[in-house]
Structure prediction request, 67 residues.
Amino acid sequence: MTEALVLFERLGAYVLTWSWQVAVLILFALIAASLDRRHRPALRHSLWVMTLFFSLLLPWIPQGSQP
Prediction:
């Protein structure tokens, strides 16, 4: 039973870490899109597609050594 709790604790910490990183990534994309209103919509679309791609890729990037 305690192994399951440790597993859920690690999983919860991982999800929290991943979610705030995605929130920061989306915030930067939102700021970049709002500052770039003069260019074509295709550029903003590409920015949001790259943001989506990196947010999906983010969970598989190694996060360093964890105990």
